Amino acid sequence: MISPREDLLRCLRREGFEKVHVDYVFCDSQIEAFSQRFGNLDFETYLGLSHRKIEIPVKRNFTLGQKHFPREILPDSTVFDEYGIGHSKGSAAAFHMTRMHHPLRGADTKEIMEYPYPTVDESKTDEFAQRVANIHDKGLASFGFMQMTVFEASWYLRSIEDLMMDMMQGNEAATILLDKITDFACAKAKAYATVGVDILSLGDDIGTQTSLMIDVGLWEQWLKPRLLRVIRAAKEIKPDILIFYHSCGYILPFIDKLIETGVEILNPIQPECMDFDEIHERFGDRVSFWGTLGTQQLIPFGTNEEVKKVALSRLDKCGIKGGIVIGPTHIVEPEVPWENLTAIIEAAKDFESKIK
């Protein structure tokens, strides 16, 4: 019998599978609810995930606080990510949703060039490699997280308005910023590949609920070659690493082009924005899928029978070759009932029984 890791990788290459693979990402309150229900925090083992997410250590090279926000007064509650991007909440009810504060909004090219971008923390490479090895020793696949790869990290720093204007006007500021972020992304991709991660999770949102977030031509000019650089950086070291790409929203016009760059897994195929059956018909022989069960409508507000029915329809569509990891399209929010989460497991077991 093959390990869950081997079976998952076969499934994602559309070479068949022994078990249906699932994925869940819980918000803090869902983790707490799970703990109260079962007495531990390990929902991944309970729900049978075949992989574990892991994030490579990076060095924060900026000084915390107001220094890098000369054009904005920050709320006292602001916290900072590894890029120095500020995040503040309007209230505790916001959960993980924050207002972003852009340190490079309005900056000139000199400020963009000299900004203290993060770097890979090479002092922790051995420790990180051991964590990956420990995941593999348990028979599980390692899933390297580096979404917010190029476009999102850049506009989070610069602001969407400034970066889009820079690109549309061909400003040097866009070239400098996007290259700085791409260099960092390539360094992370190489590090993940070097320690043997199985799946490299890239991603930048390029779709909105009903349309595109960026013109296709603008994306091809500025972002496609940089995404290609990141993927090649990983593949040159570990050719069999699987490339996962996340974008919310409507991205149909980009899918062919993403596949051209080397994307092998698409997430989440948001059903409020695109029809899964159509996407599978057009691209299912060239790319696999991850997620697909909507968290705006189905998962929080559908019945468990409805969730199970839709999950089974996804699995039926993909068939015995696989090519899908089934689960919610986004983080499981507080209002989602437990029965709707276990309905996905029930669908998986039913489908396994049907094909055996």
Write a concise keyword list for the protein shown above.
356 residues; alpha/beta; eight-stranded parallel sheet; three-stranded antiparallel sheet; 15 helices
Overall description:
This protein has 356 residues and is α/β, with parallel strands linked by helices. Helices cover 44% and strands 13% of the residues. The chain has an eight-stranded parallel beta sheet with strand order 1-13-12-11-10-9-8-2. Helix 12 links the parallel strand 11 (265-267) and strand 12. Helix 8 runs parallel beside helix 10 (224-237) and helix 14 packs parallel to helix 15. The longest helix has 23 residues, at 172-194. It is globular.
Biggest sheet: strands, sense, closure? 8 strands, parallel
Number of helices: 15
Strand order of the largest sheet: 1-13-12-11-10-9-8-2
Basic shape: globular
Rg over C-alpha atoms, rounded to the nearest angstrom: 21 Å
**Number of DSSP E strands:** 13
Fraction of residues in helix: 40-55%
End-to-end separation in angstroms reads: 15 Å
| Integer average pLDDT | 95
Uncertain regions: pLDDT < 50 for 5+ in a row?
none
Beta strand %:
5-15%
**Can you write the helix and strand succession as a string?**
HEHHEEEEEHEHEHHHEHHEHEHEHHEH
Structural class estimated from helices and strands = alpha/beta
